[in-house]
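SAMPLE LOG
Freezer: B-3
Tube label: C17
Construct: single chain, 278 aa
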Amino acid sequence: MPIKRRTPLRRMTRDRGARRRSGFTILEILVATAILVVGLVGVLALFPAGIYVGKEVVEDSTAIALARSVADAIRKGIRNELRVETKRGGVTYTYFVLRHDGVDPVPRRRDREDPAGNYYILLPRHVPGRTIPGASHKDSRRAAATGRYGKTFVYPESDEDLPNGRGDPFRADDDKDDDPLVSKVYSFGTTLPENDPNLAGPRVLPDQKDEVLKQYSYAFSVRSSIYDANMDLYQGNFVPGDELYHFRVMIFRAFNQNYTPGGVPVEPVYELDFEVAR
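STRUCTURE (predicted):
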């Protein structure tokens, strides 16, 4: 029977130490590097997406807050500065004064309020006593609000030849079929003057003069509401009361003031619909 030779303990210890001192092979380093690069690329890919999502959240939050501020200004104008005038034929026309960013200075005297001023918000109305026909009560209401019998006014007023029909809603343009619907906007924010003696400290830098809100603008439309007065549901025809109005506030970012017909119109980043009774 052959006798097995034992490897000396000293030699075994020396062999293990040699293996430990030999380090990693090139293949192991390449595999570890590849795994590390793949992991880092995945982590770094999250940063642009996170920045984009954060930017979108900030823009949406800003647009919502701005739309609500415009809606509040419209409600205040109808509640506190509603004007009712009687024109030719005894027909009453209604407008209100808007006070918000981007609006022209409002005259102190009411008799100097001009339909050409972008603070002058004329409300649409129907011919007094006109009955709107329709296959059903709902159809006649829709025809009175959004169909051939109703008008939509968009502000700021873009008709320079006959702004707001010079105070006459029957002569004012119907804007619902315009291309685009909005061609002018009100601006948000203020721009600090370059040299203002009241500003303490060093010279105002250009990026400090332009507020974040300056990149936003707004417009709004108004038409009669489908749920206007005259709740007589027993007749197929409808007689508008011109008491309830539907507003749509549109918030824009980087609005293109040089739009040409047939081009790509600027889409609002946020829209807010609400109704107000006069």
